[in-house]
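User: Could you go from structure to sequence for me? I need the amino acid at each position, not a summary. Structure tokens:
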């Protein structure tokens, strides 16, 4: 600290003056290793990260661009390496044995630390299973904000991972940890595989059936949980699925002579299936109605509760998607949903598919189902059709209607959130906005709320009841989604509230915006549109109301 004070800036960060604010305010020097005691009480891991689970991974398109042109080892012992884009690498070390290796790290997809460790382990070892290998050892990898989050959280994450690896028969023999602002965890896994029985992602053949062993929707539900819109039973079902090892499914696919396999994770069903099709030089067809789903996923799709990673996955692989005319954009969103510790996607002879699925069901994987087929040689196109047997709920408030008694935090505003505008929430959303929201324990009426829902004038209001009822209906009609979606209209409502200096209006619309998943940056930008017209008096007024 003495060196820093002599220099006038922090020796760890030259951009920070010394003494820094933390030293002045808390008498703590971070450079000397001094940290405040971490907060007590339970920790919700998904609230500490921007992107939950495999949605935190770099998108497929960007990754391919970055990796293109990088050198690959010129070694005949490398049977499958980076250029193949497969689930794991395979290195032959003697006549009939080979190593199969992978690594996987991501941010929390669940709130419970021990459960997150289990999910991270199941997800990491899945790549070995997707190749038909047997995992043997693992090294843990964890990023953690030491002293910002209680130490026992990190211990529980590691304990969960070690326990799940033990269930898989894998010994965790070491690891590596780094100080990080966001929690991340995973494992590097090494296993054995028979070089003559490798199940790569490139072996699919025309006529093969496509079987998926786990339900879809973990990305959608993880995002819904972050904004308190996921029913508890759906979160529990997702956790059970994510912590289930693909061990038995792997053993059975090898027994049934699978031609190809990949596990469905961060790139979504569409990303992984199209990669499989491209690698094999085939086209495939998927029946949307046959896709296995976790509870409440259809309701989330109908309500527009879609993580931003869906957009990134769409940008990466939409060019190979050929949806049927009856497949709606919301239905297609499911195919791009990033999965965490998803199931195996197996291509095998069609005459063996029914028996394979029956064995999976008998082993407890009751959601396993044939979702489509390999139609013939091609360039990797994925045709998505619908039989019309499964329909999305027709109302945008489907989630609230069907799960109202089970919601963690039911929303009071049921307008849909457009998928193209929703992204993972940031922790900063819960700062200034919540202060204003929490001020209103009771409903604070807005100017547009001067009429009761039944058409009767609010207490103290004047005017003819019929006229006011008609005016209320007009206001309600104006607020409904039309040429402008509900998300855009909510931003406009914030701007108009600021422009008119209506404090009750602003408080109410801040609350509604938060329920729709607005970030603090979006809220502030909407307000600043009004401030840009009204000048500094509006800026002062907005800051005062926002901070309470």
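Assistant: Here is the amino acid at each position, in order:
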């Amino acid at each position: 600290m003495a060196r820093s004070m002599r220099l006038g800036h922090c020796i760890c960060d030259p951009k920070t003056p010394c003494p820094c604010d933390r030293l002045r305010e808390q008498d703590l020097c971070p450079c000397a290793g001094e940290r405040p005691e971490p907060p007590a009480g339970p920790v919700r891991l998904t609230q500490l990260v921007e992107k939950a689970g495999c949605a935190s991974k770099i998108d497929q398109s960007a990754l391919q661009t970055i990796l293109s042109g990088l050198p690959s080892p010129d070694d005949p012992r490398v049977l499958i390496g980076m250029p193949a884009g497969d689930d794991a690498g395979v290195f032959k070390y003697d006549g009939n044995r080979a190593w199969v290796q992978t690594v996987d790290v991501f941010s929390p997809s669940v709130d419970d630390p021990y459960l997150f460790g289990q999910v991270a382990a199941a997800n990491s070892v899945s790549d070995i299973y997707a190749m038909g290998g047997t995992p043997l050892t693992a090294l843990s990898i964890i990023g953690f904000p030491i002293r910002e989050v209680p130490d026992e959280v990190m211990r529980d994450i590691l304990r969960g991972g070690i326990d799940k690896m033990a269930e898989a028969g894998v010994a965790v023999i070491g690891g590596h940890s780094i100080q990080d602002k966001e929690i991340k965890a995973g494992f590097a896994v090494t296993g054995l595989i028979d070089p003559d029985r490798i199940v790569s992602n490139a072996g699919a053949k025309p006529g093969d059936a496509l079987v998926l062993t786990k339900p879809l929707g973990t990305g959608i539900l993880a995002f819904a949980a972050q904004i308190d819109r996921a029913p508890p039973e759906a979160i529990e079902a997702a956790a059970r699925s994510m912590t289930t090892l693909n061990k038995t499914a792997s053993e059975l696919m090898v027994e049934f002579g699978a031609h190809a396999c990949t596990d469905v994770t961060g790139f979504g069903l569409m990303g992984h299936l199209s990669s499989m099709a491209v690698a094999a030089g085939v086209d495939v067809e998927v029946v949307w109605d046959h896709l296995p789903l976790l509870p409440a996923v259809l309701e989330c799709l109908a309500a527009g509760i879609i993580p931003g990673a869906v957009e990134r996955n769409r940008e990466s692989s939409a060019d190979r998607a050929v949806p049927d005319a009856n497949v709606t954009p919301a239905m297609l969103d499911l195919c791009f949903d990033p999965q965490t510790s998803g199931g195996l996607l197996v291509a095998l002879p069609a005459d063996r598919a029914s028996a394979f699925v029956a064995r999976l069901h008998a082993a407890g994987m009751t959601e396993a189902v044939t979702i489509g087929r390999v139609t013939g040689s091609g360039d990797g196109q994925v045709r998505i059709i619908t039989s019309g047997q499964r329909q999305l709920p027709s109302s945008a408030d489907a989630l609230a209607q069907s799960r109202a008694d089970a919601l963690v935090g039911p929303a009071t505003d049921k307008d849909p959130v457009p998928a193209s505008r929703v992204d993972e929430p940031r922790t900063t959303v819960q700062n200034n906005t919540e202060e204003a929201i929490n001020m209103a324990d009771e409903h604070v009426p807005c100017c547009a709320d001067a009429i009761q829902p039944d058409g009767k004038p609010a207490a103290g209001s004047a005017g003819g009841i019929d006229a006011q009822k008609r005016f209320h209906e007009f206001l309600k009609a104006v607020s409904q989604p039309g040429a402008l979606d509900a998300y855009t209209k909510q931003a406009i409502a914030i701007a108009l509230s600021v422009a008119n200096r209506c404090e009750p209006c602003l408080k109410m619309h801040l609350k509604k915006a938060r329920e729709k998943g607005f970030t603090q940056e979006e809220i502030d930008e909407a307000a600043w549109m009004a401030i840009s017209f009204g000048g500094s008096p509006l800026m002062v007024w907005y800051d005062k109301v926002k901070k309470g």
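One structural detail worth keeping in mind: Confidence is low (pLDDT under 50) at residues 399-444, 449-461.
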